[in-house]
Amino acid sequence: MKAAIIYSYGSPEVLQVAEVARPQPKADQLLVKVFASSINPIEWKIRKGMLKLLTGNNFPIALGFDLSGEVIEVGARVSRFQPGDWVYACMDQLTGGAYAQYAAVAEKVAAMKPANMTHEQAAAVPLAAMTALQALRDKGHLKPGQRVLINGASGGVGTYAVQIAKLLGATEVTGVCSGKNIDLVKSLGADLTIDYNQQDFTQGTTQYDIVFDVVGNCSVSACRSVLQPRGIYVTTQPSPGNYLRSILSALWPAQKFKVILLQSKHEDLQYLKAQIEAGNLRSVIDKTYPLAQIAEAHTYAEAGHTVGKTVMIIA
Ligand SMILES: NC(=O)c1ccc[n+]([C@@H]2O[C@H](COP(=O)([O-])OP(=O)(O)OC[C@H]3O[C@@H](n4cnc5c(N)ncnc54)[C@H](OP(=O)(O)O)[C@@H]3O)[C@@H](O)[C@H]2O)c1
Are 89 and 269 contacting, i.e. CB atoms less than 8 angstroms apart? Predict the structure, then answer.
């Protein structure tokens, strides 16, 4: 089968589409014929070697976490799926392996694909939307009636976060984005928008119950003034300093500082599927690329201006 792999860390050109052995599913895995995958910043960060303390030097390394496709084979202990099912998933292997014609995916990180989405739309969802859900629901403890700010509302995580904040009951969602993306962010349900080129949201007078810093570029001390006295700040950046801040902030009852680290879960994919099928959640797709153009796709995504998601068409 064809798969995008790297033999060394580096620029997008290290990505090669090579002929590799089809994976064999273990007892708790599905073998999925992948129709579409999508790109998340973690993948270009792995490709560049930014996480090599974790990912090591055991090349070749296969990349890609998100996929949508058809179950071809199931392991002996799999109970929820059967061959022929259309599923979507966020792989839980350390470096992934979804930029490939076939992937062996643990049953616990897959769910049936939302029926009203194409494979391209479904492949955009898992990593980004689960991150948004877990950040707002599990870290932010979002309650109906709250006021939420999403910094980075036009990107992969942000486009889902705006919609999920509304469906969890936020009465006022503010999306921080550039001027060109304001109409999109409003169309996703944001009540208010702030153009980051015109205004620094940390200098505003509104106090939010939750600030979800998807971009991860605002200083914690600056954010404090725009958080309610018991407000919660959630960042996507799992640095040692941010973990230390989160441990310290847990020690007293005032403003909390939290780090989201996505855990791929069948239950959350099921929840997202239900919301998508109810018409409460959609994918925003910026560009699509065939697998052969994976280097171009990474170059585009790494520039940091993706509107929604960049999707790979595999089949
Ligand atoms: N910890 C976790 O589990 C986890 C999970 C998922 C993602 N992440 C991290 O979260 C970050 C965001 O991920 P993503 O998938 O959303 O990235 P992304 O799709 O690449 O984000 C691109 C978007 O960010 C916007 N943006 C850039 N600078 C901005 C700024 N200063 N203020 C507001 N918006 C800005 C861009 O809009 P413009 O073009 O208008 O600038 C663009 O629409 C990445 O660092 C990623 O690694 C962490």
Answer: yes
- What span, in angstroms and rounded, lies between the C-alpha atoms of 140 and 121? 27
- pLDDT for 40-83, tens place per residue? 999 999 999 999 999 999 999 999 999 999 999 999 999 999 99
Biggest CA-to-CA distance, the chain: 58
Give the amino acid at 171: T
The ligand 1 atom nearest the CA atom of 128: 6
Question: Domains, the chain, ranges and CATH?
Answer: 2-125+283-313 (3.90.180.10), 128-259 (3.40.50.720)
Rounded to whole angstroms, how far apart are CA atoms 109 and 26? Answer: 14
178 lines ligand 1 (CB under 6 A): yes
- One-letter identity of residue 16: Q
pLDDT in tens, 83-131: 999 999 999 999 999 999 999 999 999 999 999 999 999 999 999 999 9
Does residue 217 have its Cβ closer than 6 Å to ligand 1? yes
Alpha-carbon span 42 to 87, nearest angstrom: 22
